[in-house]
Amino acid sequence: MNHKGRNMKKSLAPFLMCALVVFGMTGCATLGKNTDNEFKLKGPENSILVYGSFISSIGILTNQYDDMTFVQLNTGLQNQTVHAETNSFKKYWFAKDVMPGGSFKLIYFAEGSGNHTFFITPGLQGKTAADFKTPDKPGLFYNGICEQYGLGFKQDMGAAGELETLKDIRLKFFGSAWDPLIKARIGELENAKK
Amino acid sequence: MRKSKKILLTCLLVACMASGFSVEIKVKSPGKNQVILVGNSYSSSSIDDAFFARYFSSGKKPAPHYMWGWLPSVNFSIRQRSQVGIFGDSFYFLVDIPKDGKIQLNGFDLVLFGNEKAWIYLPVYAEFSVPEGAKYLYLGSFEYTFADEYFTIKEVTRSDNFDEAVIQTKKKFGEKAELVRAVLREISKEKK
To answer: Does chain B have fewer CB atoms within 10 Å around its N or its C terminus?
Structure first.
């Protein structure tokens, strides 16, 4: 290296150190898409399959834009964002691999009526029928038929609704690790009818 | 002092100032038939910023938790909605004074990290009259206690920190800004 190169190297060093300090300090405040606290367990031995029906007051729940999104609010547990799969015509929704013991809040969904789509953000406050707390034990969890009513929701936890929803979603899980649980629950509900 | 050390110290100073820089909400001074509602709001239970930022914030530095003020109108519509402050600090809500001089304030929206999906309603449910000539009206200091993880409101406590509010109001709007206390009346359930 020639004499000029060595001088340039020396004068750059303090600036590089400053850049590291600045990025280091801002890095401490960096949050954003940090997933290291995210619940990542899967399957019926570790997590929950949540399912239900959603009846919109102004139209149909649309799965065209993003989806039904829930977030886990209990800060003593891990984070989890749950994107539920929805069916506009049969009105069911479900989400698998959901954290047991969590407190979930619906924060976004889209509903369509005619040529209009409405994007709804219910906010973080208050537990409504559309929100749910999962049981501590892994397995299945039914959140009922949730119908928009006024500014809130009303909920029907009847067995008939659960049976219909399970039969609809079973096709999605046929042959998967969840299928035996779904099949067993359908059996329980059908036996209870008799 | 060696030149390299001077440069390093200067950069450290700039970094400290940058990381400590606070966001200030700009509010216009009140015009004719306008008044600024002054107060502050905070929570007795801290909000876990690191936890909620994972959902609602992106980028290197999270935005603050903004407060939005709005006044109710007929037909459940909202009027005069504007950003009034940052949760935990003072709020300054510029509103038009109605002809009868009476204002009904139902509450504020707290929007975590400025993300509209993460809003929480902070009730006030009070009405008050604007004294003749008042341009800056002090409402009080509102402390919110949440009952559970769903931010259900357990309690709202209002206290008077008028003297401190006078100092902050003059600091923001100039020495001529005269702060006056409002006399708040709780709104009956039928009116809410």
So the answer is: N
Max CA-CA distance within chain B? 73
φ, ψ of residue A28 to 5 degrees: the values are -65, -30
Provide, as residue numbers in chain A, all residues whose Cβ is less than 8 Å from the Cβ of B12.
18, 21
- For chain B, state the CA radius of gyration: 19
Neighbours of B33 (CB within 10 A): 12
B11 to A22: CB separation less than 8 angstroms, yes or no: yes
Between CA A61 and CA A44 the distance in angstroms is: 27
Q: What is the DSSP letter of B23?
A: P
> Within 13 A of A124's CA, how many CA atoms are on the CB side?
27
From the list B54, B57, B152, which residue is nearest A126 (CB)?
B152
Q: What is the Cα–Cα distance from A14 to B93, expressed in whole angstroms?
A: 46
Run of H or E residues at B159: strand B153-159
B52, containing H or E segment: helix B49-56
pLDDT by residue for chain A (194 residues), tens digit each? Answer: 233 333 334 444 444 443 333 333 333 332 345 567 899 999 999 999 999 998 877 666 665 545 789 999 999 999 999 999 988 788 899 999 999 999 999 999 887 777 777 788 999 999 999 999 999 999 999 999 998 877 788 899 999 999 999 999 999 999 999 999 999 999 999 999 88
Name the residue type at position A91: K
Query: Is the Cβ of B123 closer than 8 Å to some Cβ of chain A?
Result: no
Q: Is B54 strand, coil or helix?
A: helix
- CA–chain centroid gap for A119, Å, is 17
Question: Among candidates B86, B87, B91, which has minimal Cα distance to B168?
Answer: B91
Q: Which residues touch A28 (CB under 8 Å, ≥6 apart)?
A: none
* Chain A interface includes B50 (CB < 8 A): yes
- The tokens describing B51, both together, are 């936890």
Strand-strand pairing, B136-146 and B153-159? antiparallel
Distance separating alpha carbons of residues A117 and B149, to the nearest angstrom: 30
Query: A9: which chain B residues are within 8 Å (Cβ-Cβ)?
Result: none
